[in-house]
Write a structure and sequence with these properties.
The protein is an all-alpha fold. The protein has one domain: ABC transporter involved in vitamin B12 uptake, BtuC. Helices cover 71% and strands 0% of the residues. α10 crosses α11 and α11 runs antiparallel to α12.
Length: 305
């Protein structure tokens, strides 16, 4: 039971940055914008988040620095893709390359430094319950925030008028514009939200997951977050299942290596990404009613003047 508990705790920790980043990207894509720069925004959030926490001694300040870094990176994307109507795919890829290089420059002076990681919740009487105590009541604040975030996005999209307007911009921006809705402003705010979530997800890595910063520590998590949005069919509820599924694959391959399973370690390390490809192929073959993506996803919109 102790081993099972340890595996579950590891899965929760590994899944949290995926869930946070994918939640922000889901809202962004529901507005009709395809931002492939999640990886770049995440690694910038990791570098700036660790720098902020190391300099201030506060995890909260570090998390805020990560969110600000992700938001500023997203504004670069918004300026190019929305303001100048540049191709969104090319802009997102350029943003990732920029983020990887810039984060290495910012974090160069912090490599080798360590901080005290985010504290875990401790509720007397509840945290001490065997097995479920640590799982349910002993996580750090980021884990509970990720769950609250996905619930909030679901409520916003399906229970509020602004959420309906945002989905309308993603499905038919011309009609939304004809009705008088500021499509570009709505999409810019959605992109900024996605950037803040990606920055927070990146900051989680050095602030709670591993209490130090190394270049490239996101290790492709931004790309998995993008795949999770497709895996969930752009629905928040399915996103939770997908995030924990892929987190479980990541952790189990690490345990399998520790157990001495006779499979090359390189293959085991590639297993989460291989699972991503397999799931996307299966989903594309299973859909019989056409794509469930927002109809205007990735389409450039230039309002009439």
């Amino acid at each position: 039971m102790e081993l099972v508990e340890a595996i579950i705790l590891s899965v929760l920790a590994a899944s949290t940055p995926l869930l946070i980043a994918a939640t922000g990207e889901l809202l962004t894509e529901r507005s009709g914008v395809l931002n492939l720069g999640v990886e770049g925004m995440m690694i910038m959030g990791a570098a700036c988040g660790f720098a902020g926490a190391w300099l201030s001694g506060s995890i909260l300040v570090g998390a805020l620095c990560g969110m600000v870094a992700g938001t500023l990176m997203s504004l670069i994307f918004a300026l190019m893709a929305l303001g100048l109507a540049v191709n969104q795919v090319a802009t997102g890829l350029a943003l990732t390359i920029l983020g990887v290089g810039l984060s290495g420059l910012i974090g160069a002076g912090f490599v080798g430094e360590r901080i005290t990681p985010a504290a875990h919740l401790d509720i007397p009487g509840l945290t001490d319950i065997p097995f479920i105590g640590n799982v349910l009541f002993g996580q750090d604040a980021f884990v509970y925030l990720s769950l609250a975030l996905i619930v909030g996005v679901w409520w916003f999209l399906y229970r509020t008028r602004p959420g309906l307007i945002l989905r309308a911009c993603g499905d038919n921006h011309l009609s939304a514009h004809a009705l008088g809705y500021p499509v570009l402003r709505i999409r810019t705010l959605a992109v900024m939200f996605g950037g803040a979530c990606a920055g927070l997800a990146g900051a989680y890595l050095p602030l709670a997951y591993t209490p130090f910063f190394i270049p490239g520590m996101t290790a492709g998590r931004g790309w998995i977050a993008l795949a999770l949005v497709v895996f969930s069919s752009w629905r928040p509820g399915r996103l939770v299942v997908g995030a924990y599924l892929f987190g479980a694959v990541t952790i189990l391959q690490l345990h399998a290596q520790g157990w001495g399973v006779g499979i090359p370690s390189q293959f085991m390390s590639a297993l989460p990404y291989l699972a991503t490809i397999i799931v996307l192929v299966l989903l594309s073959r299973a859909r019989t009613g056409g794509s469930t993506a927002p109809a205007a996803l990735g389409t450039v919109f230039v309002p009439d003047r």
